Amino acid sequence: MSIYTICQKSVVSVGPETTVDFVARLMQDKNIGCVVITDQHKPVGIVTDRDLALRGRLGCSEPEVSPISEIMTRELKTIRKDTGIFDAIQEMKSSGVRRLPVVDKGGRLVGLITLDDIIRLLSRELGEISRIIGKESPRI
Fold it and tell me: For residues 58 and 83, what is the distance between their CA atoms, to the nearest angstrom?
């Protein structure tokens, strides 16, 4: 199963010139934990709620006019949409990230996979395995 089958396909993204204040309000209004920063539909950075808390008010002098590019994480890890789930888990683990923008062959943003998405999938799969085992186990 490819990561694209379980990733979030409706990803909130903004351009690097968008203000820190706007991104903070956007995240609050939509109740989301991150925004992907894109340039011509290609991810160039990411900002999480943690980034805003730690760098947002401290990292820029005027959040109302400062561009989000001042505080975004630039060393962005992405993952191709045809990558398998196990490989995505390994990438998250080795990179130390909880979220990975999903890109197509041209590098354009097509989704976002989070550790929570993977945990939900694994929980469902384990539940199914448990039901199968339960049906096949002898009654005591």
Answer: 37
